[in-house]
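Table S2 (text version). Query chain:
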Amino acid sequence: MIAPDASQVSDLHRERLETVVQLLLAHGVRTVCDLGCGSGALLERLVAEPQFETVIGLEQSYSALEHLRGRLGSASTGARVRLAHGSFTEADPRLAGLDAAVMMETLEHVEPDLLSQVERAVFAVAHPGLVIITTPNVESNPLLGLRPGRFRHPDHRFEWSRARFAGWAEGVAQRNGYAVTLGGIGWSHPRFGAPTQMASFVRKPGTERKV
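Corresponding structure-token output:
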């Protein structure tokens, strides 16, 4: 496909949600944290799946958390769902021992000089069995009508090419005892690839948390 039409662009978010949730289900995940849960689209989708026994939403915006509490209603006050104020750039003992953590379209909102802190907090200290990260593929931006140098959102601090994301992901995996698989989500172009790129990190047996 050369370029997406408007309906495919609007469906991309839904496809990301389903891809992430199905991967979590396939790995048998029961405890999961949405890192940077924002408005809570992924959190709501996770709550709808009975396999997930503990669902945590971590968000640094108090107003976003309050809005999310209202959206979730009684689910946000039960033992199964926990909303936590905090940042995934900082080590958080509440996240230790989870089966999985997800960063869906959040990595690109981090200042590049803080990425080493994200790596330590998520991969070294929290050290879940599975980490899923999705982020824009900057190579596909022209197919979305963006001029060179323009990002998809004004709060994005960077958007990476597939090679740049792969290099970062492989380095993180090697340093922290994970195996990583790379892929794409959405329509695919033979030259520019998919609009969303994804990395799934599976912790290798015998690796331990770094405190």
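Notes on Table S2: The two ends are 47 Å apart (CA to CA). Residues 1-9 have pLDDT under 50 and may be disordered.
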